[in-house]
Amino acid sequence: MTSSLYVHIPYCNTVCTYCDFCKMYYNPEQVSKYIDQLKKELIEVYHQEKLKTIYIGGGTPSCLSEKELHQLFSTLKLVKVEKETEYTVECNFDSITIEKLELLKNYGVNRLSFGLETINPKGEEYLGRKNDLEHIKKIISYAGKIGFKNINIDLIYAYQNETIKTLENDIDFLLSLEPTHISTYSLIIEKNTKLSIRKEHQIDSDLDYEMYQLISKKLKQAGYIHYEISNFAKPGYESKHNLVYWHNENYYGIGLGSSSYHNNQRITNTRSITKYLKGMYHLEIENLDEKDKMIYEIILNLRLLKGIKKEDFLKKYQKKLEEVFLYQDLIKQGLIKEENGYLKIPEEKLYISNYIIEEFIYGKE
Ligand code: SF4
Fold it and tell me: How remote is the CA of residue 101 from the centroid of ligand 1, in Å?
């Protein structure tokens, strides 16, 4: 059963220095054709299930004109939704307007996800972004006024020359906006980004860790629950769509560079707009056997503070976790904890989660 849909809108007004997402400059002559193609792909893959989550990401969906947004949301009326369906759209403050907010609301969108990243002028310059604080406050306040109760804001930290003080200032501003969800990203300099071409470096790992701890402490003090390595939410506002990924459940993904997981296949779409517009959607199809699926189950679920429920694993795979993975040594070392039927990485060890997950899957007793 597949009951989640991701839709990728690859257009952006500017290109951030750290970005390795599938994106391109906004091209008004192409957007309408792109949405037509999205419609064809949707009709091809979607099997009329009622969707419990829809997530429109990018790129920057909010950089589309109102006319293009109408075209996009009319297309998405093809899918069946329920009253409780979580319907998210990613927005950038520089392209969202009062009129676009109203349009999203009228089409049933009920969750907004904004990229703030930093308000430190030096950080903005480094990341290739620009924030207008008065506009941000106005947009958040108007969104609340017209009934958006569920708002995520993204924060980036650990970039060159950032200090604990500027990070604290970013967090304070972010908290003053009272979002229900906060996603935090420690900057990674990925290949082929403007930062990597400029030969920029990651910051010192001790400072990165200090920043991670500060974020976690301040957000928890402000009433947010740390529920995934990089994500915090007010109680009841965890991202349902992202939980589908972390619980290793099926989802459709349509659009340039998107990925899907259904029918025991992980499918990655092409990043070539020329191929995509010709209907040649797929770049790679990974056929998963039972062991592959179990490995994904671990990689994704252990990102959650709650961890993986042993009983759910048994129900899903008819095998006990301990029959498949040799993790007893990790328990002895205090890197995995067993609690109330769940296996999890203790919060203070999340910082080395990649190492722990790898040991969990491939390590020996
Ligand atoms: S980070 Fe977001 S807004 Fe910036 S270029 Fe990448 S997709 Fe576009």
Answer: 20
282 in a domain, yes or no? no
Containing domain of residue 166, as a range?
Answer: 4-245
Residue-wise pLDDT for 30-77, tens only, equals 999 999 999 999 999 999 999 999 999 999 999 999 999 999 999 999
Which residues on adjacent β-strands are paired with residue 81?
A: 51
Whether this prediction's pTM lies above 0.85 is answered by yes
**Shortest-distance Cα residue to atom 1 of ligand 1:** 19
CA of 122 from ligand 1 middle (Å) equals 18
Which 8-state DSSP code applies to residue 304?
A: B
Q: Give me the chain's average pLDDT, please.
A: 97
Residue 291 lies in a domain: no
Give the residues surrounding ligand 1 with Cβ less than 6 Å away.
Answer: 12, 15-16, 19, 21, 23, 58-60, 92, 115
Instruction: Name the one residue in this structure whose structure tokens are 């002895």.
Output: 332
What is the spatial order of strands in the sheet that 337-339 belongs to? 308-309, 342-344, 337-339
